[in-house]
Design brief:
By secondary structure, the protein is of the alpha+beta class. The chain has eleven helices and 27 strands.
Length: 495
């Protein structure tokens, strides 16, 4: 009897193994069929576009660090506002078309259910399928269904709201997961295909997979003329994929949110790194640049330095604030835009050479602008090239920005840090000293015979320091001390 039981257990065990193998093979077959279906649907889908030269074999991505018609001559801000309206779910109309673009999370958590069976449907199976909005429905169990008709398989699907009423849910920007709004893609095709644009960011992408979504981030110069070659679907957050080509035939693309319909992102989430995923963050129209390009195109992408300390605006934490920029700070001119509120003025977008921080400065390019002060003239503010300040060390540049004097600085670097001294003298033993009066002391900077700082010492203005008090007094009255140690109002500064 024991022997028979043993034989039965072995037989059952083998049947279990055979069953597992059959199930495994079936799962592999189904997965293969799903991939084949997705590949076929992608190849036949006019909304799926790729940059040229993309290989059909997968290549590992290597990122660097991630309704009214409008005339063609429209200003960029009018173009976006009139052609790409944001639709919250409350404003969705039946017939609006979306494409299922699942992300990794969506492949684990199914979004839709079959309206006939109420069973969940794999997002992978629906990938690249087009769903047409058919309104919402309040169910008897208190749940809300967002209904869709699928153009690909002629079936009805629905998304069940996680909680609450339709009105509670629709006013947010959550939308329906996985869905990219095709209305923006169709409108962008109509208005932008074959048009010439100007690049406004350095960061773009190229495709690395013919049958997948792999990409590689690439850098390309700002303010370069490109032509729109293809427009297709991007991602749920950034639904419009714009492929452009430069004068050398090189193609690259950007995925952008035009109206932000169903993007799932708030407006403040398009700051900083995501700014390039707005159309105006990556591209501009040539018409907006023509007046600048005709006269000042040669300044774009050039390196300049400040001839003197000046006030600029800088953006941080989403806010603009005014900052004083030291003399000899190096910048690259990224953009030049006419100031519509001040005729004759242009706003420069300047990227600091070292920190890459972005600044803004309003300037004139001619001296005949009415009521424009001399200090606003470009030639007064900036010199071409990096300037002598770029030969300084990192430590020295940090001290200059903080207004400190440290040993080893040159005379030019001291002036960059604390300004020009009104009192300079050479002692009998050949030591050069510059004096800077403070509220209750005098900063005495000593240089060696090579013109380098030996030390910078604050000397108090006490009763026992007659020399320091005398230097401060003479300095504040605008006199200079000559090399012999006597004072003269017209003495030449020691170099």
């Amino acid at each position: 009897m024991a022997q028979v039981s043993k034989i039965i257990r072995i037989f059952v065990g083998r049947l279990s193994i055979i069953h597992k193998n059959i199930m495994m093979k079936r799962m592999i077959l189904l997965a293969g069929m799903a991939v084949a279906m997705m590949t076929a649907s992608a190849q036949d889908n006019p909304y799926i576009v790729k940059t040229k030269n993309v290989k059909k074999t997968a290549v590992k991505a290597t990122p660097l660090a991630d309704e009214a018609a409008q005339e063609e001559e429209a200003e960029p801000q009018d173009f976006m506002g009139k052609n790409f309206r944001f639709y919250s779910m409350c404003d969705w109309k039946e017939g609006m078309r979306f494409m299922v673009i699942p992300e990794k999370y969506d492949l684990l958590v199914n979004t839709f259910r079959d309206a006939n069976t109420n069973k969940e449907v794999s997002s992978a199976r629906l990938r690249y399928f087009i769903l047409v909005y058919k309104g919402h429905e309040d169910m008897t169990n208190g749940r809300v269904h967002i209904n869709f008709f699928c153009e690909n398989d002629n079936k009805n699907y629905y998304y069940e709201l996680p909680a609450g009423t339709f009105d509670d849910y629709c006013y947010g920007k959550l939308g329906v997961p996985t869905l990219a709004y095709l209305g923006d893609v169709d409108k962008a095709k109509e208005l932008l295909l074959d048009k010439q644009l100007i690049t406004r960011t350095e960061f773009f992408r190229i495709d690395t997979e013919y049958d997948g979504d792999g990409f590689q981030e690439v850098r390309y110069p700002k303010n370069k003329l490109v032509t729109v070659k293809a427009i297709g679907v991007g991602t749920r957050a950034f639904p419009v994929k714009i492929i452009v080509e430069d004068e050398n035939g090189e193609q690259f693309y950007q995925v952008v949110a035009m109206s932000k319909t169903n993007s799932g992102l708030r407006d403040d989430e398009f700051d900083v790194d995501n700014a390039k995923h707005l159309f105006t963050g990556s591209f501009d129209f040539t018409e907006a640049q023509m007046v600048v390009a005709a006269d000042y195109k040669s300044y774009l992408n050039k390196t300049v330095h400040t001839r003197r300390a000046t006030e600029m605006s800088s953006k941080g934490a989403g806010k603009k604030r005014d900052m004083k920029v030291p003399q000899f700070t190096g910048f690259i001119i990224d953009e030049i835009q006419p100031d519509r509120n001040s005729p004759g003025y242009y706003t420069l977008t300047l990227r600091e050479s070292e920190t890459r921080r972005v600044y803004y400065k309003d300037v004139t390019f001619t001296k005949d602008v009415p009521n424009a002060p001399e200090q606003d003239y470009f030639g007064t503010l900036f010199g071409m090239g990096e300037g002598i300040g770029r030969s300084t060390t990192l430590e020295t540049r940090a001290a200059i920005r903080e207004g400190r004097v440290i040993p080893g600085m040159t005379m030019e670097e001291v002036e960059m840090a604390v300004g020009e001294s009104s009192t300079k003298m050479t002692t009998g033993d050949g030591v050069t000293q510059w004096m800077y009066p403070r509220s209750n002391s005098v900063l005495v900077v000593e240089f060696n015979e090579d013109g380098l700082v030996v030390k910078a010492t604050p000397q108090p203005l006490g009763t026992n320091n007659t020399k320091a008090r005398r230097m401060a007094s003479q300095s504040s009255s605008g006199h200079r001390m000559t090399g012999s140690g006597t004072f003269s109002g017209n003495a030449t500064p020691v170099q």
